[in-house]
Specification:
ten-stranded mixed sheet; 30 strands; about 850 residues; DHBP synthase; 25 helices; alpha/beta; Alpha-Beta Plaits; Nucleotidyltransferase, domain 5; seven-stranded mixed sheet
Length: about 850
Amino acid sequence: MARRFTVKGVVQGVGFRPFVYRLAHAHRLSGWVANSSSGVVIEVDGDESVLDAFGRDLTGEAPVLSRIDSVDAEPIDRPSGGPDTGTDPRPDTGTDTGPDTCHGEGGAEAARPNFEIRPSEHDPRETTLICPDVAVCPDCLAEFIDPQDRRYHYPFINCTNCGPRFSIIEGTPYDRPATSMRSFRMCERCQAEYDDPLDRRFHAQPNACPECGPSLELVMPGRGEDARERAMAETLLGRSYLRPPAEVTALVESDPAAAARWLLKHGAIVGVRGLGGFHIAADATNDATVRTLREKKDRPAKPFAIMCRSLEVVRMLAHVTPAEEKVLTSPWSPVVLLGKRRADGDPAVERRFPRGGESYPTVSELVAPNNAYLGVMLPYAPVHHLLFTEGLEILVMTSANRPGEPIVDSVSAARERLPGITRTFLTHDRDIVNRNDDSVVFVEDERVMMSRRSRGYSPYPIDIGRETVDVLACGTELKNTFTVLQKGRAFVSQHIGDMENQATLDLYEEMARKFAEWFRFEPAVVARDLHPDYLATRFAVSLAEERGAPLEAVQHHHAHIASVMVENRIEEPVIGLALDGTGYGTDGAIWGGEFLVADLVGFERLGHIRYTPLPGGDAAIRHPYRVALSHMHAAGVGDLREAASRLFEDVPEGEVDLVVQQIEKGVNCIDTSSAGRLFDAASAVLGVCSEISYEAQAAIELESLVAAGDREVWPPQADAYPYDVVETEAGLVVDPSRTIVALVESASRGDARRDAASRFHETVVAFCREVTGRISAERDITTVALSGGVFQNRYLLRRLNRVLIEDGLTVVVNREVPTNDGGVSLGQAIVASERVRRQSAC
């Protein structure tokens, strides 16, 4: 008998067809396998029991990079002719290898099954999935470091288990002509690997070697297009003229990576082109270099991500749990936020890495100042591995972009957008078609949580597990993504960035168009945020008008909670705690400290943090002392000007007077219930941070006071400051007035800031617990969904999760999308879909 299997999911570009080929031979089945626009199609002929075993092994032994959504099996008369496209759709690989079919070893041998791999077919009505870019695999890395291997130190080594995917794809199905590798014609040896189904490079579309593939180049002043530039000082510290020795300059042609390595070791700042764009690299152990990079990038305090040579180096710098090690070394290889070890005298470091007269690498304090965490990743592209020799152990690897703009992907773009940072670039000639920045994650409760979902994860779909309407959800303003919801799957875009400039809008529109093409998508409905002036909102309105599609507006915090619900397959109403910085409310105020009862269609607002004016609007966000003054005024603190002179010594008296007048007169103020702004106020009152240079800096530095030290030994539970919960017609209102007064008194007494910060965190835990408990008792709801950027505060998240569970409640959080605004588009998509579905059912 014969059977056809259709396998859907991420099953192209991941070695699935050779896996099927080997599996068919193991089960001694005849037939064929082919890629199609809907997935992988297999027809096999054999005994029923063998076909059953084959079907089980399709999912049980699938390649590590594959992601199977479904396997449909149906009986057929016999394995038939397979896809008939009328043309030979083989990739133009530069050699004539005959029909794109691969038979078993000794194909003419009658005793062996006749199984073949057939050409890809293309059906414009169907969609296929795209694998993200992944880190170099252990097999390729072993070849990479083997001097006897022909790909020794080849920076573009890859196979079906690793390498670029999303960043090089131009169209689907995923075949070489539809990637930026189409211009590189494979040599005979690479072609033989590509054609051999028993080779792990069978149909590895980026397959190449030094003879036929991409190559590195070091672009620097005085070379190439920059021939007019004489000095190399721009590439170095900017304070001295340092010329490399002749033997190093000779390496620029013969070994660009070695020349870049020398420059980095001697204090240079170098742009490094990886999979999805450029990093700005610098020696992370060199204070002077890191300080210069901060000056050049105009980034006074925001933490830099670092890349460490090995896991052992990471352990010297940070506390690493087994779960964190697993994600660090995974194929996705994200930036992982790890708790810092103490700089000196850490017994764990001394025990595991005794100095014995030799120093071990330590990262500059300027990498992540006033922060309890380090953002760490391991080398994931082969070119990264080339940089970690000759004494380099830790490199700053920060995204090459202007603040708020997308990562740059070419030398020309870097020169245009980042001329003051570096003029030296380690680059290559394989085009980056789709930019994608590093993903950022942290681990709580042994599970990965997203802070930024991009390389390694996008565009993996999220299986919704329910029937859906086709929706394009356009997201919000900060940390934006968009979501394509189609046939029960949500394709969340890679991290786009802050929608506040033309460069980000251009990338947003480019990727929205590409997603529509790749996934054969036409929206039946467009979803947007309530805020009328966001660029994403304007895009949504314009697109809906252009396509004649209905437009659904979804409130920001409802979208946050809905994203948690859909991830966790929850349909019944939940209590939603949405704590963040900014979200447009239904009453025109800025929300951000919300207690909701929500389902996938609507919500009720049953509680919130007391409204407090934001003096100067966005200016108050940049200057947390303004928020502190507003909270102090609302709390009835006496002479604000006198208190400000004690608490905010660095703020000019005239500026304080202006802000106080704004607050007292209500001029240029907008009300907010934001939990993020409450954290800002506490941070400013305690003298932690009164002005910020990056988003959430004041709250992050306040958390770092509490979370500093041993990762697993949090400070003892502190007593909460007093607060009030007031019943009003609008619901339960948390009044933090007494908390603010207590903070002012603590700061005036000179209490230890860490103790005060711990008590403030415990206060937030306490009022969240109280309001949630009261809503649970009133509505008989026991599931609580936590979402919003404030829940990136790991101490708060851990403490609140524990106390709610102690109260008998079930707590759910975001896992596959960020809890910050990077997850809003997913919530928008499911709310819009459910509204339309229910309207259609009426």
